[in-house]
Predict the structure.
Amino acid sequence: MTGYSSPSDDLRRVVVAGGGPAAHRFADAMHTRGLEGWHVTVLTEEAHLPYDRVTLSKALIEVDYDLTLGDMSMWEHDALDLRTGERVVKINAAAKSVKTAAGNSYEYDALVVATGSTAARLPIPGAEHTHVYRTLDDVWAINEAITQLTEKLGRKVKTVTIGGGLLGLESAAGTERLGANPIVIDGASWLMATQLDEGAGQALGRLIKDKGFEIHGGVFPSEVLSDDDGQVTGVLMADGRIIDADIVIVAIGVRPRDELFRAAEGEEQVFTLGQRGGVVISDSCETEVPGIFAIGEVANFGGMCLGLVAPANTMAEIVADRLHGGHATFPGFDTATKLKLSGVDVASFGDAFATTKHALEIVYADPARGVYQKIVTTDDAKTLLGGIFVGDATPYMSLRPLLGRELPAEPGAYLTAAGNTDAPDTELPDDAILCSCNNIPAGTIREAINACGACDGNTPVQELGELKTCTRAGTQCGSCVPMLKKLLETELNKSGIEISKALCEHFNLSRQELFDAIRVLELDSFEDILAKYGTGAGCDICKPTIASILASQHSAYVLDAGRGTLQDTNDRALANMQKDGTYSVVPRIPGGEITPHGLGIIAAVAQKYRLYTKITGGQRIDMFGARLEQLPDIWKELVDAGFESGQAYGKSLRTVKSCVGSTWCRYGVQDSVAMAINLELRYRGLRSPHKFKMGVSGCARECAEARGKDVGIIATSEGWNLYVGGNGGANPAHAQLLAGGLNDETLIKYIDRYLMYYIRTADRLQRTAHWQEELDGGLQHIRQVIIHDSLGIANDLETAMARHIDTYQDEWAQTLKDPERLRRFRSFVNAPDQKDEDIVFVPERGQIRPATNKEKNAVLISSASIPVRGSED
């Protein structure tokens, strides 16, 4: 087929059977190419929107984790119709229609079948008591079973995963993260036998055992044992052993969902099926029946069906291209695999088993360390054919795009575990695929860097996030992000665009370098720092940055010793300036807990000074409309009543939000309020590169929305789960799990280290989510530093935090003690008693708000003389 042509109806109708990643990618490809003249109907049997199965383990650990693919707004297009709960049960090729289980019929001009696969089941007694690992509902069921059994038994549950391949190990690792004791049973002699040779599989087994996994290889299960109530008690093995178990998960592979292509009894077989299932397709991804395509795991090409995201995406793009008159062809399967399993790197690609005639295998193995690296080349040791890496997969990203090409260096140079610290720098050819998930070649990425067509076509891309958005590279599994970042930096350097880490024109050092220099030399004034490392007089970038560094290192009063002139407007006033020139007053209310007496104090102050009051999203009360000269009087009443500054004006801790927790809530498993108060009082006043927020939820229902905070804590029956790097704002990000099942002491220790490491290493105004993404190694690097002390700085970070806690002083309490400090709070320097008559309010909903310019011409309420005409008083 050279290009699909449909009947000359007003709209060409495309029906997609299936709603998984392949179906979503097809719909997205049609949307990108243009839907004028088309109507695409996607029929998915699941109740969910298309979601990412690659990251299914995240939903196993956190049932509310959002795996939804792409931008939801795509489905709002008039030509795209997504229908959930609609399972296609029959294809009528002659009538060009499909029928669903609900009895509905959909006519098509082109049909795309993307039904995927189903989890294989065990044909042994007791299999009905097992779980499988395939869909969102599957992993939610596993999570619920582990949670309920843990509470019922009062101990760690034993989860047996049958299957030592990719899905099996991913499943076992997820149960371990949920607090279970993971046991893996595999019929093969070593783990991941499909992707790894014996040496690599044995190395992986040793590493996994060191992580606390129990492995039983080379033997098959014969029965799943259970009691009279159906509760699993163990697995009977073929050799007679019984392995104790509370939950059994079967992850032995998948089978193509090809039932739509199989002939019913009495019907003639129309479609050709593969020996092991799946409908046979051509290189145009079309079946034998014109106009019917198959993509993803249900498609059999070259005798294979594979459950990998990269070929599924490629097939989807090819069908969209064909329907638009193109001639794209499917090149075959990319079987490369890379994963990080419980902190263990594993990668395999190309001819990993050296089946090519005369292939050479260059191997480094260190059984004691659990490291195995192998590179497969042609017999002249020049052309790369494949490779396997376990324990240290550092070379994978450099080598993967060079598959089938001549290596730029000796193969042994890429065996980093043998003593080479880094793989050789590689200049990728334009046609080398950098992002295999989305089939993005290096040349496409270079074009985007130099002149992004998705933007104005002229402006070079200089940010990694922008590059990912423009090219889609690095947006699926994320394994190519380090190479993507490296290519970005290389291309910018070639273009003469210096990737400067300088803080500003006055300081050539980055914020991190400046922080370390100030700390080591114990500098405590801007003048000394400028004389030592800078030039000129400073600016509005370096001044507040250095002020923040000094505050985080010394906890000194931020406006003393000349530091007042360094601060932003809000920090100078110790309050947030509003649009009309007035300020807001925000007392700290730790954890959102406040006594009725405290509420009365705030109410009295707000009434006395006629302030607008609003409960904030951080569970405290904000009072608006205070003039600069009123701030000391307002704060004196608040401080005398026991309140302190909430520092809503500073780049520091804002709030620690909490739910009511186990004290009152029947679902709470830990006292989230007490923990939130403890944390807020511990980290109050801590200056950082950007504001940060925290949240504590007393159970998995997550009422405090902790996953949206820079530091989020969620209670479980096993202890606290610690999440980091969540941000709201214009670019929201979910926090990621750093560690689980922590006691109070360990939780606080890890937070101390995390926050201080962030403060020391982040760029100016860099939020935690972006900081984590930009760090080499990302969350895994942070985990190594915070939990395993890989840099040997844990004690130093804890000491620095302890110093802050010991020296903390409330800024407003300190201000009120010193007449010189109070001189700052005057609307007019030369007339301290004069009030700003330009500040005008109007009544609204029983309170006040700033007047518009038009309203100021007809004064309703003046802040200088309240009440006046227009007031009801």
Notes: The radius of gyration is 31 Å. The longest strand covers residues 38-44. The CA atoms of residues 106 and 462 lie 47 Å apart. The first helix runs from residue 21 to 33.
